[in-house]
Design goal:
The radius of gyration is 20 Å and the shape is globular. It has 194 residues and is α+β, with helices and mostly antiparallel strands. It is 22% helix and 34% strand. It has two domains: 21-138, Immunoglobulins (Immunoglobulin-like); 141-169, no CATH class. Residues 1-19 form the signal peptide. Keywords: Signal.
Length: 194
């Protein structure tokens, strides 16, 4: 029984840490957007960084949304300069660890073509970047929304070609099968222990 408790704790800790990406110079983490996560045209794309108290490095971050399509050079600037200050207003605690969190909420323009993109966090001081792959899905059709509103019912069908559950042929899936299996195993172990 103790083995299952210890094993499930380790798996849960590993799966929660996997959600964060660390910069190449290990001077900040990116907690959002979620790698390979689905985001919708016309909706908010959250970009959140975490700076640690014990890391003394000078960084100058900018964020952009770059198309991942082969041969494409489409770039949408998200933030030319991200706040990287370490103030009491941005301080957060996680146990004995203090970190400083800053977020930029970017409205994905309606002109963005749905598909695979990279959210690029560029540190111009070290000339390093962290690419977070995401999948931009089309917005819901206005005709479906209007027809549901006029009948007082929710639309049962979607005109969207994207799915957050399966690969759309562009090589970007919302969740890898191994992550799904690990998550299900964790739930099963916790249910067994209870």
């Amino acid at each position: 029984m103790k083995f299952f408790a210890i094993a499930s704790g380790i798996v849960l800790a590993a799966s929660s840490v996997a959600a964060q990406l660390t910069a190449p110079m290990q001077n900040y983490n990116v907690s959002s957007p979620v790698s390979n996560g689905p985001y919708v045209v016309g909706q908010i794309l959250p970009c959140t960084i975490q700076l640690f108290e014990n890391v003394m490095s000078d960084i100058a971050l900018s964020i952009s949304l770059n198309s991942a399509a082969a041969g494409s050079n489409l770039t949408y600037p998200i933030a030319a300069s991200v706040d990287v200050s370490k103030t009491s207003a941005s301080a957060k605690q996680n146990g004995n660890i203090t970190y400083y969190e800053h977020s930029v909420n970017y409205m994905i323009p309606t002109t963005v073509v749905p598909g695979a993109y990279n959210v690029v966090f560029l540190d111009s001081k070290t000339n390093t970047h962290l690419d977070v792959p995401i999948n931009v899905l089309p917005a819901a059709s206005a005709s479906v929304i209007k027809s549901a509103a006029s009948t007082g019912a929710a639309a049962a069908t979607s005109t969207s070609a994207g799915s957050i559950f399966k690969d759309n042929g562009n090589g970007v899936a919302a969740m890898s099968p191994s992550k799904a299996i690990v998550s299900l195993a964790c739930v099963a172990v916790l249910a067994y222990m209870l």
